[in-house]
């Protein structure tokens, strides 16, 4: 839809558990890069973010277990993109944050600043795979909250089913974004950026303890202001973001953090170019500046509370309210005759409001030689969404003169309405048991989901759709410490996703269900910050929607897909400012049972389009040592290779392989004179060699982003 909408236990028993190292001030200078200094206010699990961070590496994360579990003891694949990596790559959106992670496909829809749209292990995660501080970020229709990467401390990718802890979701996995939080040390940072396409941006991030609070209160204020054009004619990528945060820590055992954000964006209504037959992408941009300003406001307020009744009993509660409002006008080219393009328009006005609450209790104890970490909780999510829409016409576009923005385009009549609400309640229980070298993880959860949808067209109401679903999901995982820093593991996990609607007989669709078998090995080289992982996986999702072979106007929940493959990852910090990431993914994603929407014929055995079968991603940085004549200089480069894929689900055409190169050059002026301490200049280039590439998915093709260069002047204090 995103691609076509513009076209239509005693603590001693836990001796191997890494202790929480609180989030450090973002953007530490290279000389200060190292283990976190322990001056923050982050909680130790359930949305608190990764810990043990050094450079690009992290030792522990709560995302996979909601406890502060070492990554090497987690029975699923987990990757962490740290704040330092986000800074040095100058990440501008969530897709860029995920660009060097294994198992992810982020360029499926080409250049599109409107949405964080990506795939994990071949499954779309846009709507139900994005979490913020451990809470699901609801998204419906075009009301998709955007992540501002400068306001995040880390991005964690959990690959494979996560329903055993989080409820309904994508079988491919989830992405958990950790918000920046107050720290109990005074700091500040300011960025000024300028780039091609008249891109100008200012970032600021400062905070510290509140004076007079006797070390019990801290604040943080983070913000972004951007004014930018894009390579799309007359299309902007403007943003204003402000995120105040406040922490109250009256004692070492109690922490309350308030997290808020307001964001206003102006984006293009479409990023599409007109497609000629046989998957040929023209240079004719579909949008028009006269009717192309997609404006969106989003805001959130919530808290993270933790209280330790003792070293072995911890209570946590995370809450968030989210609102998203957007006006989405667009123009599309319906056909080309000679030098004339016939066009139509659409306007969607959407509002989304959601409430998420997760309450959990963690206990630690021992029974003989076995140590236990027991976690129990209940979470709740509610959202309401409404849409007011209309379709209309636009004057023809003269392809000879490309008279974009020179003609008046009327607003369509708004005569289409839709609204939807959903409530989800989940109860979950997890046991992590350790005996000798064995680590057993057992997770179980039951969800109750109810939803209702109403719609109308030109005042005529449609058929109401109400349904209630319930499902039990879980995970069992086993790790074995074969040697220090070497842990093989295996796991089995299940997932489910409700599907709104009814079949030909009026029966509600049953939820799509899935399961995964994963096995692999994780490694940490002792006394270094070098980690590696290898995983093989096999995911099946069944009861997905397909066209009813007996009534093409209807759907049935009898489809099935299968994703299998393997991933290899290496992350290393060799010293301050010197890091390396490597990721290789082999993916074979196929339809087991499905019907073509184009030919209405079975496409069983076909590969999912737009998702490359093989990807290689490498990014590294090197900081010249103080003894070098080039002291203060940091260089870096990245290579992203995506192998060929099919352009359509009918598998009649192919996308070519593409290799993109990114680069980094930075200089710390303190190397010239200590009085310049804190000043840094940085230049980032994306698609350095300006590779002109396209990608086609489900029969429609998208243009990739051309070469982009952004220069930054940074001051930290």
From TrEMBL:
Keyword tags: Cell outer membrane, Ion transport, Iron, Iron transport, Membrane, Receptor, Signal, TonB box, Transmembrane, Transmembrane beta strand, Transport
Q: Outline the extent of the TonB-dependent receptor-like beta-barrel domain.
A: 248-688
Which stretches of sequence are listed as region Disordered?
30-49
Residues in TonB-dependent receptor plug domain copies: 71-174
Please give the superkingdom of this protein's source: Bacteria
Q: Which InterPro entries match?
A: Beta-barrel_TonB (IPR000531), Beta-barrel_TonB_sf (IPR036942), Plug_dom (IPR012910), Plug_dom_sf (IPR037066), TonB-dep_rcpt-like (IPR039426), TonB_sidphr_rcpt (IPR010105)
What is one process in the GO biological process aspect for this record? siderophore transport
Entries under Pfam families matching the protein: Plug, TonB_dep_Rec_b-barrel
- Main subcellular location: membrane
In what way does this protein cross or attach to the membrane?
A: Multi-pass membrane protein
Task: Provide GO CC annotations from the record.
Answer: cell outer membrane
Cellular location(s)? Cell outer membrane
| Similarity-based family | Belongs to the TonB-dependent receptor family.
Record NCBIfam families: TonB-siderophor
The protein in question is named: TonB-dependent siderophore receptor
Organism expressing this protein natively: Methylobacterium oryzihabitans
């Amino acid at each position: 839809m995103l691609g076509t909408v513009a076209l239509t236990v005693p603590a001693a028993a836990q001796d191997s558990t890494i202790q929480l190292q609180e989030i450090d001030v973002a953007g530490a200078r290279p000389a200060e890069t190292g283990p976190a200094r322990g001056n923050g206010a982050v909680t130790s699990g359930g949305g608190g973010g990764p810990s043990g961070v050094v450079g690009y590496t992290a030792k522990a994360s709560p995302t996979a277990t909601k406890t502060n579990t070492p990554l090497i003891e987690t029975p699923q694949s987990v990757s962490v993109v740290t704040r330092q990596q986000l800074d040095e790559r100058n990440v501008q959106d969530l897709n860029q944050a995920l660009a060097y992670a294994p198992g992810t496909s982020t360029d499926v829809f080409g250049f599109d600043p409107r949405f964080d749209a990506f795939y994990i292990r071949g499954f779309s995660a846009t709507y139900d795979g994005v979490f913020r501080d451990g809470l699901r970020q609801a998204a419906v229709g075009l009301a998709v909250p955007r992540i501002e990467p400068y306001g995040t401390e880390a991005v964690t990718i959990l690959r494979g089913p996560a329903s055993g802890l989080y409820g309904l979701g994508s079988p491919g996995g989830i992405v958990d974004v950790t918000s920046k939080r107050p720290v109990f040390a005074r700091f500040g940072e300011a960025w000024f950026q300028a780039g091609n396409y008249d891109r100008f941006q200012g970032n600021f991030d400062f905070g510290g303890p509140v004076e007079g609070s006797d070390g019990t209160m801290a604040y943080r204020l983070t913000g972004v202001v951007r004014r930018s054009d894009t390579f799309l004619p007359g299309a902007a990528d403007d943003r204003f973001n402000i995120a105040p945060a406040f922490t109250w820590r009256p004692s070492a055992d109690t922490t309350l953090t308030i997290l808020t954000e307001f964001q206003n964006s102006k984006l293009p209504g479409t990023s599409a170019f007109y497609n000629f037959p046989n998957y040929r992408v023209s240079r004719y941009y579909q949008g028009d500046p006269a009717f192309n300003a997609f404006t969106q406001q989003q805001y959130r307020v919530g808290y993270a509370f933790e209280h330790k009744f003792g070293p072995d009993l911890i209570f946590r509660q995370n809450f968030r309210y989210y609102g998203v409002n957007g006006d989405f006008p667009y123009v599309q080219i319906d056909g080309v005759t000679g030098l004339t393009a016939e066009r139509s328009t659409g306007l969607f006005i959407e509002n989304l409001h959601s409430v998420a609450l997760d309450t959990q209790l963690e206990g630690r104890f021992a029974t003989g030689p076995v140590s236990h970490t027991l976690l129990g909780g209940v979470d709740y999510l509610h959202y309401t969404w409404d849409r007011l829409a209309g379709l209309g016409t636009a004057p023809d576009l003269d392809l000879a003169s490309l008279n974009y923005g020179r003609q008046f385009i009327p607003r369509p009549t708004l005569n289409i309405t839709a609204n939807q609400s959903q409530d989800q309640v989940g109860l979950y229980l997890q046991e992590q048991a350790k005996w000798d070298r064995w680590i057993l993880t057992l997770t179980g959860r039951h969800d109750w989901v109810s939803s209702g949808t109403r719609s109308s067209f030109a005042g005529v109401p449609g058929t109401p759709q109400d349904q209630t679903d319930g499902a039990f999901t879980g995970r069992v995982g086993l790790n074995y410490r074969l040697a220090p820093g070497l842990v093989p593991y295996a796991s089995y996990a299940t997932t489910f996703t409700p599907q709104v609607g009814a079949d030909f007989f009026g029966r509600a669709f049953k939820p799509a269900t899935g399961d995964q078998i994963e096995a692999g090995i994780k490694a940490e080289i002792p006394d270094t910050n070098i980690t590696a992982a290898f995983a093989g996986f096999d995911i099946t999702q069944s009861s997905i929607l397909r066209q009813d072979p007996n009534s093409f106007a209807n759907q049935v929940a009898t489809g099935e897909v299968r994703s299998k493959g393997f991933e290899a990852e290496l992350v290393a910090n060799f010293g301050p400012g010197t890091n390396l990431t490597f990721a290789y993914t082999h993916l074979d994603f196929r339809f087991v049972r499905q019907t073509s929407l184009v030919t209405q014929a079975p496409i069983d055995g076909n590969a999912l389009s737009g998702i490359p079968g093989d990807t290689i991603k490498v990014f590294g940085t090197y900081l010249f040592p103080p003894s070098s004549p080039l002291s203060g200089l940091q260089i870096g480069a990245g290579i992203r290779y995506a192998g060929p894929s099919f352009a359509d689900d009918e598998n009649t055409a192919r996308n070519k392989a593409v290799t993109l190169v990114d680069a980094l050059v930075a200089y710390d002026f303190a190397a010239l004179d200590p009085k310049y301490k804190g000043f840094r200049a940085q230049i980032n280039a994306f698609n350095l060699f300006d590779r002109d590439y396209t990608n086609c998915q489900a029969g429609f093709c998208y243009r990739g982003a051309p070469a982009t260069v952004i220069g930054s002047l940074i001051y930290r204090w």
